[in-house]
Amino acid sequence: MQPDEAMTRAEPARRPIASRSSGWAIGLSRRLAASSVTPNQISVASVAVSALGAALMLLWAHPAAWILAALCVQLRLVCNLLDGMVAIEGGRKSAVGALYNEFPDRVADTLFLVAAGYAAGQPALGWAAALAAALTAYVRVFGGSVGLPQDFSGVMAKQRRMAALTAALVAQSVEWAFADTRWSLGIALGLILAGSLVTCVTRTLRIAKGLAS
To answer: Which GO terms describe its cellular component (predicted)?
Structure first.
């Protein structure tokens, strides 16, 4: 059994992430755990990074802005990885850690997706994608509330949403260099919306199956 798999079984509400076992993540998390930085501060930092990425999308229509926003998306995921590692592997869990584990994620998703909607000229699509993303988390947490393991699977779970958005931002930087259009962002938001709704359905079906058995 891999260390990450064993830790996930011990923490059933923890998202399985392959990069948690990578050398750079282990080394960085150990250094952070030995410092005065807390897991909750890292969680808050993910919101700050997301706000920066959202501002870049909204305020600077330039290929460089899309690339920098894509980097912010990935930095947000790094923060999400490290806060859990510092808390669990680093032994720095706090009484309110569960709040910081969930609430900043919802804020970060909303900032990125709503900003992408406005940047694409389709604000309603951005809000709809953000709502659907929040619903995937609601269904997951609901499964845990009725005694089942939290289900992190789905065609548009968080890592896949952010991968789709990252790819769209990079594609948008190329698109913008040739034409004043925002197809890349709009298409990605449509896929995120549809995939998130499918994820809600598949997770709900798994919950129903788990409760029935």
So the answer is: membrane
